Amino acid sequence: MKITRLTSIAALGTLAAVALAGCAANEGAPAGSGAPTDGGTASTISGTIEATGASSQEAAQQAWVAAFQTANPEANVLYTATGSGTGRENFISGASNFIGSDRAFNAEELEAGGFGACVSDDIVEVPAYISPVAIAFNLEGVDTLNLDGETIAKIFSGEISNWNDEAIASQNEGVELPDQTIVPVHRADASGTQETFTSYLAAVAPDAWTHEPSDEWPLQSGEAGDGTSGVVDAITNGAGYIGFADASRTTGLGQVAVKNGDEYVAYSAEATAALVEASPLEEGRSAHDLAFAVDAAAAPEGSYPIALVSYLIACTEYEDPEVAALVKEYIGYVTSEEGQQVAAEAAGSAPLSAGLQEQIASALEAITVE
Question: Could you tell me how far CA 163 lies from the centroid of its own chain?
Fold first, then answer.
């Protein structure tokens, strides 16, 4: 596990212009708005908050924390990349003030409640990090491959076990595929990235992938990696390996262009944003619980059909008002235009749309700071 705790980073000095001050120093400015203080007044934001959760957010969190703490030197934000499942467990147990998760709490979990971090069971869930889930591989002499959903499903179920299988070769004319065993890699831990990937398989190839979407891998076959880093390390060091991970972590590996409709679409922030923007919010949730219902089977033309929507989850009410104020301010910064640009530059994520940023700003008002 890695802990992000940064109080001053000279290399990110240009980000210091994102002046983030507390509500007391920014009369009329919403939390996280990035509005400069009047006359350059120093930030009044202070305190320490701790978070655990999605390893997919790690690169973005490092950049967010650096920029936020550069502007607010009396504030400390500690983010430990434990994986989404552990993050949700920590939020329930009260071990984390807020968490990152590659999925929102589901209806059953919300009904059960018992969020130890909070005074009540009323929580805020907002999207903060939208990124492609890349299918990456390690195959000597091959940098890119075209694959449709059914073939991907059969590779990860073990039905297709050799790289020169006709199902792969027929979609990659002119590519010299070796007579080599395919080794699929999945997550060993409960992971929202894994749930995103299995949801894609179940949606587009239900005959080849007969398992329900889950954050836990449903098969005993293949190789398991601990966290995003474990999956990427396995692929990097294993000839013939293939796996899935947040795209920001797969640089230098072979990449799959995924078939959507009549074309093969390589991942990009723009192509991923197109899928998410076409997706509705889940029904039956509160106005401050913004969970997307992404359907890969309904992906619009030209979009990349495997999109990770990673959330920040917080309480509406904390015992310590200083914690509440700092959580609210930090998440407000992360989901602001400035924060989203920081993540796009650091991790290649797809920035939230202006309309969604407004919805999130309204949702964050549910966090009480008095």
Answer: 30
